[in-house]
Structure formats: structure tokens, C-alpha cells
Amino acid sequence: MEKRRTVYRIHGILHSVQRSGHWAGSFRAGLEPDLRRRIRQEKVVLIINILHAWMIAQRDLVPEGSAISRALDYSLKRWAALSRYLVDGAVPTEYYKMTWPDA
């Protein structure tokens, strides 16, 4: 239960940054990709690094083959792709923007 609360807290922090307009909102505001990248570097990198370290630590604590181990393995194996938006301001933060550009 504590693990779930930790993930929810990190998720909540990321969403509060997003809602503030400093992160995902800047994509809709039409900012240049380089400025979006700098904003993401300033506002999100530390949070994402904390999440990544937490995921690695938790992976060692959960039983092999459990649903949580599979979820952590999935995310950790794809970490470079999942965090690419931090170094590329042209990458949208919302999934629907990647799949439905007119959304």
C-alpha cells in the first residue's frame, strides 16, 4: 500500500506541474521546442530521476513474476523512450497528442 501511495504522490507532483502550464501546457501554448525542453529540464527532470531511482529500488523488493514486477520491468526496459520528452522539446507529453495530432 505504501508503494502505491508513493507512486500516486509522484504522479500528483508531475500533474501539478503539468496543470500549472509550465510543462505540457506549454506545448499547447505554441512555445518553441527548445524552450519547452528547457522548461521540462527545470521543472521535471529531478522528479523523473527520483521516480526512476524509486522504481529500480522497488524492483529488487517485489517477487519475480508478480504483476508489479512485470509492470516495473516494462517501464524500466523502456525508460529511455519514456523519458525522451525531457531532452526533446518537440515530443508531446500527452499520449493522445502522439496518437491523434489533431486532438
List keywords for this structure.
disordered C terminus; 103 residues; mainly alpha; 66% helix; 7 helices
Largest sheet: none
Helix/strand order:
HHHHHHH
Query: How large is the radius of gyration?
Result: 15 Å
| 3D shape | elongated
* Strand content bin: under 5%
Percent helix = 55-70%
Overall pLDDT score: 78
Write a structural description.
There is one protein chain. This protein starts with a helix and ends with a helix. Residues 96-103 have low confidence and may be disordered. The chain has helices at 2-19, 25-28, 33-43, 45-59, 67-77, 79-82, 95-99. The chain has one domain (2-99). 66% of the residues lie in helices and 0% in strands.
In short:
The protein has 103 residues and is mainly alpha-helical. The chain has helices spanning 2-19, 25-28, 33-43, 45-59, 67-77, 79-82, 95-99. 66% of the residues lie in helices and 0% in strands.
Question: What's the helix and strand layout?
Answer:
Elements: H1 2-19, H2 25-28, H3 33-43, H4 45-59, H5 67-77, H6 79-82, H7 95-99
